[in-house]
From TrEMBL:
Gene: argG
Assembly description: Homotetramer.
Highest taxon above the source species: Bacteria
Pathway: Amino-acid biosynthesis; L-arginine biosynthesis; L-arginine from L-ornithine and carbamoyl phosphate: step 2/3
Binding site for L-citrulline: Y93, S98, N129, R133, S184, S193, E269, Y281
UniProt xrefs under Pfam families: Arginosuc_syn_C, Arginosuc_synth
Chain ranges of the Arginosuccinate synthase C-terminal domain: 183-400
Official protein name in the record: Argininosuccinate synthase
Native source organism of the sequence: Hansschlegelia plantiphila
EC primary class: ligase
Amino acid sequence: MTEPKTVKKVVLAYSGGLDTSVILKWLQTTYNCEIVTFTADLGQGEELEPARKKAELLGVKPDNIYVDDLREEFVRDYVFPMFRANTVYEGQYLLGTSIARPLIAKRQIEILRATGADAVCHGATGKGNDQVRFELSYYALEPDVTVIAPWREWDLTSRTKLIEFAEMHQIPISKDKRGEAPFSVDANLLHSSSEGKVLEDPSLAAPEDVHMRTIAPEDAPDEPTLMSIDFEKGDAVGIDGEALSPAEILTRLNALGKANGIGRLDLVENRFVGMKSRGVYETPGGTILLVAHRAIESITLDRGAAHLKDELMPRYAELIYNGFWFSPEREMLQAAIDLSQNDVSGRVRLKLYKGNVIVIGRESPNSLYDQELVTFEDGAVAYDHHDAAGFIKLNALRLRTLAARKRRNG
């Protein structure tokens, strides 16, 4: 254990669970400092008032307990900008955990400034990506802040030691926390992720009880669900013709996705810290939104802009995954992505069926699709078939030159 720094007041990202409750008491005993707790409602589906009561029980002053509903900000300012880029990491992962971390870190820094605190603390472990995401965000927003990462400092290296510490300091422990958790869970309005323990062997199928956001596709209704999503400038603004707020849209899409078995992913990913990790993710609403967004872009985006976006997306996804949301390069890419969305407005009609999201129609006042141009019937005046011959010959020129050289050289 390293020698603790001198701090007076710490803003702790606090869930109210065993780990962060132990961290809270450990901060008090190790640093002898005042604690400010911050609990974020990101749509994880849990009652958060118990976290407030538990913080009070552990000696935190009522004025130092923050429980904030950030659902609308989360979807509006983080999830939606990310989805404008059709962002997926390593071809599959919709970044549900990654995108939540910069918002939590930003709010911690805001509370630090409001309360005069001089340090922030998170509960991420020393092996994962979240420690990187939290701390890069802290330093980007408050470069001289002191960061406390207990899992890299203390000697409470097992579940048994955590429980012993909790019992020693009279921290309430729920019965299900006394044994080893079968897997760890992170959840917010965009997704749920499960990792560790029974999921660590990637050759074994995940138990069905790992899934908490979706029913199994084979158990979904035999009749498809028909729906539509309205877009304005790349963001979803309504479902089935009803205008909704960003968080309301994602909540509604989650319910539709859950009922139709949509959004399950079993992934072995490459962590930023250098190891591979197996995770089971559920992103029901996000999976629907991604398909719909690509569909409305298909008729409103120019080919060059669409292809450039697809080239930029893996780099953009990697920046978010690695924790660089507040970096200048992410902001530069975001500016380009947002500019591309100016005309991405219209309606997409979808069929949801047993784990599948199927596009059945798309329309937009800004559509670039011209039926006159693509029709096999006579009547197109903007396209002369004879022009194709010269176009092909010009594009074939270098290929013909290469072929001639090969023939000369035998």
